[in-house]
Design brief:
Helix content is 34%, strand content 18%. With 423 residues, the chain is an alpha/beta fold. The protein folds into 3 domains: 146 residues, 3-Layer(aba) Sandwich (Rossmann fold); 191 residues, Dihydrodipicolinate Reductase, domain 2, CATH 3.30.360.10; 57 residues, no CATH class. An 8-stranded mixed sheet has the order 8-9-10-7-11-12-13-14, covered by helices on one side.
Length: 423
C-alpha cells in the first residue's frame, strides 16, 4: 500500500485525508509533521501513526529519510518551496498545497527540480475538478457565446473567513505568509486561465521578479485598521462592551455561532468548549479585528491582458458580509453569468447570423443551469477527493498526466506574483 507523509496537519490536510473514509485501502499515513504537539497527537491517534514517525519539524522528518512514497505538503505558505524541493530530491511524489512558492526564481527552480527528479507533482487547485467550473469550461468549448472577449470575476471572501484567516489568522500578516492575492486568489486566477484557455501577455524577461508585465493592480488595506475601530472598542473581544452588536466580534463567531473552530484543539483534560473559550480569551483569534496587527490588503482589483486579446478583470473583496464568486464571460455571441452555483446563458445571436459549427442548437436560446445541489456537497462538491484520486492515479500510472500537474499552474502563479508586486 502506498505510504503518504503529511507535512502540516491543518484544515486542508484533514480534508484531503478524509478521502480515506471512502477509500481506506488507497494509502496509509506513513509519517506526520506538525509543530503543534496537540495537533500531532490527534493525528497520531486518528491515523494510527507510530510515535517514531511523528515529527514536530520538517527538518527532523527529512533527516530520517523515511520510507514513504509520497508527501502531502500543507504547511504554512513560506515553507512550501523548500519542503517541495527536499521531497523531490528524495524521490517522493508531491501533492503541494497552493501557492507552491512565492516568486519567479523559486517557481522556475521548483519546476526544474521536479522535472529532473521524475516525480509526480500536483498543485492543490481543486476548483479544476469542481462541477461548476467544468461546466463553464464545456460551455466555452462548445462555442456557446462565440469567441471570448472579456472576463469579469469577483470573489467575495466573506466577513467570517476574512476575519478568521486574513485578519486574526496567520494569513493576515505579510511577515508570516504570502500576499493575500497570492494565497487566496491564486485559485481564482488559475481557474480562469484553465477554464478559458487564454495566456497572459508579455511574459517576463528571464530573471525578472515580476512574472508578467501585462498585469495591473490596485487596492490595499482599506478597512481593518486601528483608526477604523468603532469608538470604545477594546483590543480583545471578550473585554469589549460592543461584543454583542459588533459584526466582526470573535465572541459571536466562535462562541455564539461556533464557526471556524476546527483548529482549536483541546488540551489534555479540556473540553472542546473550554478550548474555544481559551483561544478567544488569550489566543490570536480573540483579538479585535481592528487591532490584530494585520497588514495584508482587504480589497484588490487586478487586470490581466492576454495574448488572445481577452481581458480578465478580477476583484478580491474582503469587506462583503457573505462569501462567494460571480463570473461574467462575454463573447461575440452572448454572455455566461455564473453567480454562486447558478449559470445563466444569455445568447445575443441574431436569427440571421449563423451559429458556430461546434455550437449545439441550445446555443440559440437563453437557459439557466442550477448546480446548487451538486455544489452543496462537502469537500468542495467532491473536488477535494477528485484531486487526491487524480494524484494517486498518476503515481500508480506514469502514463497518466494529472489535471493539476505543477507545470500547468505556472502562468497563474506568475500573474499573482506580478499582481502582488504592482500593488
Amino acid at each position: 500500500m502506498l505510504s503518504l507523509a503529511v507535512i502540516g496537519m491543518g484544515n486542508r490536510a484533514r480534508k484531503y485525508l478524509a478521502y480515506l473514509q471512502e477509500h481506506p485501502d488507497a494509502f496509509r499515513v506513513g509519517a506526520v509533521v506538525e509543530p503543534s504537539e496537540v495537533h500531532l497527537e490527534a493525528a497520531r491517534e486518528q491515523y494510527g501513526v507510530p510515535a517514531e514517525a511523528c515529527f514536530t519539524s520538517s527538518e527532523a522528518f527529512f533527516a530520517e529519510r523515511r520510507a514513504v512514497d509520497a508527501v502531502l505538503i500543507s504547511s504554512p505558505d513560506r515553507s512550501h518551496f523548500s519542503q517541495a524541493l527536499q521531497a523531490a530530491s528524495y524521490g517522493y511524489h508531491i501533492l503541494l498545497e497552493k501557492p507552491s512558492c512565492e516568486g519567479v526564481a523559486e517557481l522556475e527552480t521548483l519546476l526544474e527540480e521536479v522535472g529532473r527528479a521524475g516525480v509526480v507533482a500536483c498543485g492543490c487547485y481543486v476548483l479544476r475538478y469542481h462541477p461548476l467550473y467544468r461546466r463553464l469550461k464545456a460551455l466555452l468549448e462548445e462555442g456557446t457565446i462565440g469567441a471570448l472577449r472579456s472576463v469579469s470575476h469577483r470573489v467575495r471572501i466573506g466577513r467570517d473567513r476574512m476575519c478568521h484567516s486574513f485578519v486574526r489568522g496567520p494569513w493576515g500578516s505579510s511577515r508570516e505568509t504570502s500576499p493575500i492575492f497570492l494565497s487566496k486568489c491564486c485559485h481564482d486566477v488559475d481557474i480562469l486561465l484553465w477554464m478559458t484557455g487564454v495566456h497572459p501577455a508579455e511574459p517576463a524577461s528571464p530573471g525578472s521578479s515580476a512574472g508578467f508585465s501585462g498585469v495591473s493592480s490596485e487596492g490595499g488595506l482599506t478597512f481593518f485598521r486601528p483608526e477604523k475601530a468603532p469608538e470604545g472598542a477594546a483590543e480583545r473581544c471578550l473585554d469589549c462592551p460592543l461584543q454583542e452588536s459588533c459584526s466582526w466580534s470573535a465572541t459571536d463567531l466562535y462562541l455564539r455561532r461556533g464557526l471556524w473552530t476546527d483548529s482549536f484543539f483541546p488540551l489534555p483534560g479540556e473540553t472542546k468548549e473550554e478550548a474555544v473559550l481559551r483561544e478567544v480569551r488569550t489566543g490570536r483569534y480573540g483579538r479585535c479585528a481592528f487591532h490584530s496587527g494585520n497588514d495584508v490588503a482587504d480589497w484588490q482589483r487586478v487586470t490581466v491582458f492576454t495574448r488572445e486579446g481577452v481581458t480578465l478583470d478580477i476583484e478580491m473583496d474582503g469587506l462583503s458580509p457573505d462569501e462567494g464568486r460571480r463570473t461574467i464571460l462575454t463573447g461575440t455571441r452572448g454572455r455566461i453569468i455564473a453567480d454562486g452555483a447558478v449559470i445563466t446563458v444569455e445568447p445575443s445571436l441574431e436569427p440571421s447570423l449563423e451559429a458556430a459549427p461546434s455550437c449545439p442548437p441550445s446555443c440559440l436560446s437563453s437557459r439557466r443551469i442550477d448546480l446548487s445541489a451538486e455544489a452543496a456537497l462537502p469537500f468542495h462538491a467532491g473536488a477535494d477527493f477528485l484531486l487526491v484520486d487524480d494524484f494517486l492515479h498518476a503515481v500508480h500510472d506514469p502514463s497518466h498526466t494529472p489535471l493539476t500537474a505543477l507545470p500547468s499552474t505556472r502562468d497563474s502563479l506568475l500573474v499573482c506574483f506580478a499582481a502582488s508586486l504592482s500593488l
